Amino acid sequence: MNFWTPLLGITFAFLANLPMGYWRSLSRKYSPSWFIAVHLTVPFIILVRLKLGLGYGFIPFFIVAAVAGQLTGGKWFGKLAGMFGPESGSF
User: Fold this and answer.
1) What mean pLDDT do residues 83-88 have?
2) How many whole angstroms separate alpha carbon 36 and alpha carbon 42?
3) Residue 62 lies in a domain
4) Alpha helices in 4-89 (DSSP H)
5) Is residue 82 part of a domain?
6) Is 11 domain-assigned?
7) DSSP SS3 for 35
8) 28-51 per-position pLDDT tens digit
9) pLDDT value for 12
């Protein structure tokens, strides 16, 4: 395993959670939609970690990347929607 293998998996965890963070930010807290948005990527992230041959020691890094993706997606896409939404006067 080289340097790029864990970085690839951690980047996947972050990027996969960007749209989920946006979806989560639009959902009512603790609703079924919110729960799905938070947990939908977990099996895929586990599968990627196992396929890349990364051990248990990498799980905290994957969790941090997934949470960062959720938070970033909620904030970033929310700002984009505000910039280009119907209230922005861009159309």
Assistant:
1) 60
2) 10
3) yes
4) 4-26, 32-39, 42-51, 59-84
5) no
6) yes
7) helix
8) 999 999 999 999 999 999 999 999
9) 98
